Amino acid sequence: MEPYVKLKNKNGVGYIEFFHPAHNSLPSNLLSKLTRTITSAGEDDSIKVIVLQSGGDRTFCAGASFEELVAIQNEQTGKEFFSGFANVINAMRKCPKFIIGRVQGKTVGGGVGLASATDYCMATKYADIKLSELNVGIGPFVVGPAVRRKLGLSAMSQIAMDANSFYSADWAMQKGLYTKVFDSVDDLDKAVVEFTENLKTYNPKAMTEMKTMFWRGTEDWDQLLVQRAKISGKLVLSEFTKEKLKGFK
C-alpha cells in the first residue's frame, strides 16, 4: 500500500489516519501533510472532536523515517528533518479541538511524541512504548517536552535513558500517557467511538477554553521545539551517530 494521510468526517468526529508500509514510520512529506491536516480539521466548524490514528493492526508509529535519517548531509537538512515532528506537535497543541489518540500497537520515538501530544489517549495492551533515540546517538529532544508534560520528568528520563527497552502499555497508563488500555483493537475502537460520540455533544467553546487551559505554559514551544530540532540536526552528523546508523543499516 502507498503511504497516506487522510481525514474522514464521521458525523462531527474527524478521524485523521496516517499510514506507511515501514511500520507507520513518518518521512518528511507525511509529517508535513499530517501538520496541514490537523490544522485544517481544527478550522473546520463541522468537526467537533478529532481522533488521531494510524493504519494497520500492529505498529502505531515507528517514529522518523530511517531512510531520511541516514541521508542527512548538513545541519540545515537535519534541522528541517527533525522539525517535521515539531510542526506536528505544535499543530496538535494549537488545534482548538480535543484530539483523542487511538494507539493500537507499539510506538517508538517520534510516535511516543505524537501519543503524548494528544489530549486523551487510549490504547491496546500491545501498545508498548520506547524512546530509542539515544541508542542511535541522538536523543528525544524534539518530542521531549510533550513526553515530559504527559509522563513527568522521572518517567520520561527513565525511558529516554533505557533506550533499548520497550515499556508496557500498562506502565504507560500508570504514568499517565494512556487513559485506558484494552485487550483488543475491537474493544479499543468501540471505546473511541463511545467516548467521541459523547464528547462531540459538549459545548465547542467550552472545550476550546479547556484545551487552552490544559496547554497553558507551552506557548514557547514554537521556538523551543525548533531549537531542539537544531540540536538533533547537529548530533546526527557526528561521527558517533554515523557509525551507529551504519550498524543499524
Q: H/E series, N to C?
A: EEHEHHEEHEEHHHEHHHH
Number of helices: 11
Question: What topology, given as strand order, has the largest sheet?
Answer: 1-2-3-4-6-8
What's the name of the CATH homologous superfamily?
2-enoyl-CoA Hydratase, Chain A, domain 1
- Classified by CATH, the class is Alpha Beta
What share of the residues lie within helices? 40-55%
Q: In one word, what is the shape? A: globular
Beta-strand percent range: 5-15%
The biggest beta sheet reads: 6 strands, mixed
| Count of the domains | 1
Distance between the termini: 23 Å
Explain the overall architecture:
- By secondary structure, the protein is an alpha/beta fold.
- The protein is built from 11 helices and 8 strands.
- The protein has helices at about 30-45, 65-70, 75-95, 110-115, 145-150, 155-160, 170-175, 185-200, 205-215, 220-235, 240-249; strands at about 5-10, 15-20, 50-55, 100-105, 105-110, 120-125, 130, 180.
- Helix 3 (about 75-95) runs antiparallel to helix 10 (about 220-235) and helix 5 (about 145-150) packs across helix 6.
- The radius of gyration is 17 Å and the shape is globular.
